Amino acid sequence: MPAEAWGILALLLFYLGVQISLGRATQRELDEATMLPFVDDPEVARRVEHDTGRSTSGCACPGACDGRCEHLGERLL
Fold first, then answer.
1. Hey, which bits of 1-77 come out as E strands?
2. Alpha-carbon gap, residue 27 to 5, rounded angstroms
3. Phi, psi of 4 (to 5 degrees)
4. Rounded to an integer, what distance in angstroms lies between the CA atom of residue 44 and that of residue 67?
5. Who contacts 53 (Cβ-Cβ below 8 Å, separation ≥6)?
6. I need a labelling partner for 21 at 20 to 30 A (CA). Which of 10, 12, 30, 61 fits?
7. Is the dihedral angle over the CA atoms 20, 31, 35, 48 positive or is it negative?
8. What is the SS3 assignment for 57?
């Protein structure tokens, strides 16, 4: 098999692996994951929560999560 065919096969397998990996996540899980990078900076986290109405704590609660919602214990790692 030519070297180009191995490269194309590797690229195809990589693409399929990424699609399968991301395809299993729900929209809520993807939304939570996009907000997690803002947790480390409290000032930016407050602005993001205010501007988007989403929690930056990794919880699916709207706004700042106080731990008393229906999503308790459903945090992403």
1. none
2. 35
3. -65, -35
4. 21
5. 62, 63
6. 61
7. positive
8. coil
Percent helix, strand and coil across the chain, each rounded to 5? 55, 5, 40
31-69 residue pLDDT tens = 777 777 777 888 887 887 778 777 666 565 665 566 666
What are 10's two structure tokens?
Answer: 């590797």
Q: How many whole angstroms separate alpha carbon 18 and alpha carbon 36? A: 20
CB 33 within 8 A of CB 75: no
Which two three-digit tokens encode residue 9? Answer: 């096969």
Say if CB 59 and CB 69 are below 8 A apart. Answer: yes
The whole-angstrom separation of Cα 65 and Cα 56 is 8
